[in-house]
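Input record (one chain):
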Amino acid sequence: MKPVRRSLVLYFVVFVLTFAAMWVFWFAGKETPIKEPTLYDDTLNQDSSLAIDELGPENYAVNVPEIEQQEVIVAVEAETVDYSKPVHLEDVIPNYRGIGYLTGLPADTQNALVIPISVPATQHYDLTICMAADQQVENILSINGQRLHHFRLDGTGKFMRVTFYGIFLEEGKSTVALETLDGGLSIDYLELVNHTTIYTDTFQIADTLVNPNASEEASALYQILCNQWGKQMLTGQYVSSPENRELKLIQDITGQLPAIRFSELGQGNDLAQIEAATDWHLYMNGIVGLMWQWNAPGTDSVYAEDVDFDLAAALDSVDVTALAQMPLADAKSAVADGTLPEGALALLQDIDAVSESLIKLRNMKIPVLWRPLHEASGGWYWWGASGAYAYQQLWALLYHRMTDYHNLNHLIWIWNGQSIAYLVSDDTYDIASVDIYLNSDIEFGSRYEQFLALANMTGRKKLLALSECSSPPNLEMLALDDAVWSFYGLWYGEYIMDSDGKFTNSYYSSSDLYNLYNSDRSMSLKDFLAYQQNTLENSE
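The corresponding structure, as predicted from the sequence alone:
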């Protein structure tokens, strides 16, 4: 071929490819949603633990026993149950009931004490155990052979009542067992009372996002979350990299993809993370979820023990609302003349930098479930280690800088402070969430107790979500407990795959995962797209 013809052909090919790329970029996924979503990057070929046809029926039905609400009070004195040495009866600690209490429970014993109870009716109960210890001890509560709660008792030397709320029990005989990780526990009595909150709980969720200038796309996504509240829980998965290995594994096992792809900013190449999130939305029409692993200004770590950045000093006597509106040049001048701490300027610079990444998603009209400043009350991250007030100041600065200054109106704000002491202003977040990680041998269930605590914290005015977890919630228990998590986000790594990319069944089985993604109680990506299509058709 002559050079001129070769050049013409080359130009033509480049033109066609460029046009095709532009068409995909602007129009893919904007017409009829994909009925059978398949990952656009099909280069991964991880082996699933079981083939799809080995796992069960196409659709998984949730079985919920019939509830029989009755007023019940059942009390069992510990000294009336069968026990053997070294467990023995004592009457030294004051304020016990009956003729004494049982003590001497040995350490590292699976069934250190087993208490049989007769359950009068099939319903939810609050289980209270009156216990004492001279030093802090850790124990595991099991009911009918299932490990439900890992709890810690302070060593006050006095009896205290520890209550576990909303435990579902069926009529008949049950057993309550205490597994002792430490010795030194004394048991006085057990009390079973019917739980009522599950059956009477009411929420008044806001119809709109807290940002009055929220984008049309963010408002539409929030409306879907509100409409599905209590009907379907949206599936979500964190990815360890832009290659989506976890999503491919889920598709191999379940035939489905999650509705939400979660990923992190701040721990590597943010540009690559933003591009991967953009691809997920453009090519799959999936929901984008982002969290911010914010390294303390001037450091390369998020952990308080690794950094010396003092958040309280950085925001001392600072009007964060005014600072949020301040141009960066003015902030630098304020530092120079001594009216603004250097730490405040460093915070502003970091917020502006991450905002630049998020602006790209805004310009593409991609709504984002946005979760910054997570797990604050734990104190292990620098943004929570300076106390609740400093954290609340930082949250206000972050919200107003991003919303009012950078006009990031595509963000749906998720508060993940995990303590009422760290609760932020009601008009600066849309969703409240909690992160729950359990040992692999503890039944994850619905985590109703944490759900109830979060509902109480937020006055039942916010959507509630399980933003990080070690296992997907159990669908039957979600239905029984009416624990209305809007969505969950399963963390990556050992919680879904091993180092070879194979499914790990340490926390749940592949059957559990299959059933979750193929149940009408959960919303996969396929379900999400179908819901959007139905909504569109009904509005025409």
